[in-house]
Design a protein that fits this description.
By secondary structure, this protein is an alpha/beta fold. The chain contains 15 helices and 17 strands.
Length: about 475
């Protein structure tokens, strides 16, 4: 009989990031959105993440954790943070850092990241032994060693947000695992993600297309054989977005609210964005891009395409932080074409919202994209996405030239500069046609991009594990 009820369903949800507490990439947004939706659906979710900064919690309780000696001690601090979310922070000597993964001074990963997240995994295992949840839900390599440190274990789910990051480290870590060491051994080293893939009861990719892509040699990053062996234990569930935070009708960052039924104030948001950038309104199409500066995100492709923007005509506003080489490239392009390209180096949430609202088009030239959130956020704001045809972008963006009257954006036929320029040309022509622009915006804005259906899919998966 299918699982029908979430009554008394208890899920221990472990993640290295959780918005807004610790936010680097999409993992933080996805973890926050999914757990909030599960909570609204009646699931008892305990969210566990590292205590990076010693933040204060209301109604705090502290429990010492029974962790191996090599961890150096750990405590579980449970309470309510300033946003009102109930969380558990793992307080361990090695976890506290100004950035979850990188040394801000060098931009390189902390040299002891293997130890840090092994310690976090040991703490998660200790909490699971104490709590005895119905399901343990792990996320990415940072939590993967739990499956080598927890025995016996409850039904376990692993979500892969980005398979490129696997946490591979030295062979010596196998000696610290309590069980299933052979699953984590990987070509003379230890691969946390590979081990968890082999051992988890279900593995979730964050979109159906990404689930299909990662079983191929081209996109499986060395783990395609192991993933292919899972069969129907590997599933794809598309991420959602926080529809409360991403609602132009209620967004306090905008000069004026607007909605699908009353979209006129989006023009005011565009004028305000132009003014903020110091640009006049010359009629050019404004292309927004809010992203991590990473090769994956195709920032170099966007900057290359922007050299042709005078002919399209369009202007690019780019907000992002990350790779220093890409940041310098963006800075150089903006210095050379200040009336055509604006680059803001850093992460500014409020400014990001204003770009989503004020831009005509939103550019996502990703080389791969497990799910992507920005294209859905853009459509919620009536900003037409221009993307590549990869991963979750394939699942969410429909090219209106290929499916006229059904599309919500424009998709490059290839992952390169020429493809992006072509897609941008087509998109600019489309949004210059008022009726077509309104239809594109309406389709994007009236689609339910929230976490409601993805959360329901997760609950069904949990129930499947508990009834078999």
């Amino acid at each position: 009989m299918p699982f029908q009820s979430v009554d008394h369903l208890r899920v221990l949800f472990a993640t290295a990031e959780l918005s807004p507490i610790a936010r680097v990439g999409g993992l933080a947004e996805a973890a926050a959105g999914l757990t909030a939706a599960l909570d609204r659906a009646g699931v008892d979710v305990e969210v566990v993440l590292p205590d990076y900064d010693g933040r204060a919690l209301a109604d705090e309780t502290v429990e010492e954790l029974a962790v191996p000696a090599w961890v150096g001690g750990a405590r579980a601090r449970s309470g309510v943070d300033v946003s009102g979310r109930a969380i558990t922070l793992v307080d361990a000597p090695t976890l506290a850092r100004p950035h979850p993964y990188l040394d801000p001074a060098t931009g390189e990963g902390w040299l002891d990241n293997d130890h840090r997240f092994a310690a976090f995994s040991a703490a998660i295992a200790a909490i699971a032994k104490m709590r005895q949840p119905d399901v343990v839900h792990l996320n990415d390599w940072h939590t993967s060693l739990v499956l080598g440190l927890l025995n016996p274990r409850p039904p376990t789910v692993l979500t892969i947000h980005t398979i490129a990051y696997q946490g591979t480290t030295g062979l010596g870590w196998l000696d610290r695992l309590e069980t299933h060491r052979e699953a984590f051994e990987w070509f003379g080293g230890t691969n946390p993600l590979a081990g968890a893939i082999a051992l988890a009861d279900r593995v979730i990719a964050v979109s159906p297309s990404y689930a299909r892509e990662i079983v191929t040699p081209e996109l499986g990053v060395g783990l395609h054989h192991r993933l292919r062996a899972l069969g129907d234990r590997l599933v794809g569930i598309r991420n959602g977005i926080d529809s409360a935070s991403w609602d132009p009708a209620r967004d306090p960052n905008l000069v004026a609210p607007y909605s699908a039924s009353a979209p006129a104030a989006k023009d005011e948001c565009k004028l305000a964005l132009l003014d903020e950038l110091g640009w006049s309104d010359n009629g050019d199409t404004i292309v927004g891009m809010v992203t991590r500066l990473a090769e994956q995100k195709g920032v170099d492709l966007a900057l290359g395409a922007a050299r042709f923007f005078a002919d399209i005509p369009a202007r690019l506003v780019l907000l992002g932080a990350g790779d220093k080489t890409l940041a310098q490239q963006a800075r150089n392009e903006a210095d050379q074409s200040p009336d055509r390209i604006s680059f803001v180096d850093g992460y500014d949430d409020a400014f990001g919202h204003r770009i989503f609202a004020g831009a005509d088009l939103f550019l996502m030239p990703s080389r791969f994209e497990p799910c992507g959130l920005a294209q859905m956020q853009a459509m919620a704001y009536g900003t037409v996405p221009v993307t590549t045809d990869v991963g979750g972008l394939h699942d969410t963006v429909v090219d209106d030239d290929r499916q006229r009257g059904r599309g919500n954006g424009f998709v490059s036929r290839s992952v390169d500069g020429a493809g992006m320029v072509d897609a941008l040309h087509r998109a600019v022509r489309a949004v210059k046609q008022p009726a077509r622009r309104k239809a594109l915006q309406r389709r994007g804005m009236t689609t339910d991009w929230s976490w409601t259906q993805p959360a329901s899919d997760h609950i069904a998966l949990y129930g499947e594990l508990l009834t078999h």
